[in-house]
Design a protein that fits this description.
0% of the residues lie in helices and 54% in strands. The chain has 107 residues and is mainly beta. It has one domain. A hairpin with a 4-residue loop joins strand 1 and strand 2.
């Protein structure tokens, strides 16, 4: 059941405009590289007691992988490569750079 409390503001909590752009490259020796960018325009957020403006932000993400052998792959994914301190919901945590490494063994 959806109910609106007195004083609640109902908003889509999403920007009117946003866009993403990405590119990838795969070398025959097993090396892969991808780069992507996401831009979000400013918008107003309202959810319960959390209400305020989300400023515009742009995030750049990067992934590098290497297929060393048929059964062994290593990769690293870096989100928010430029370490812009942003929040995507009002009242949420600041999001900075995050790197995740993967080691895959298949058999």
């Amino acid at each position: 059941m959806k109910e609106q409390q007195f004083g609640d503001v109902l908003l889509p909590n999403a920007p009117k405009h946003k866009f993403s752009l990405g590119a990838g490259y795969k070398h025959p020796i097993g090396m892969e590289l991808s780069l992507s960018m996401r831009n979000v325009q400013p918008f107003h957020w309202a959810a319960g007691v959390f209400e305020g403006d989300i400023p515009a932000y742009t995030l750049v993400n990067c992934a590098v992988g290497y297929q060393a052998t048929k059964n062994f792959r290593v990769s690293v994914v870096v989100s928010n490569l430029l370490d812009h301190q942003v929040y995507q919901i009002f009242g949420g945590s600041l999001i900075g750079r995050q790197a995740i490494g993967n080691l895959t063994v298949s058999f």
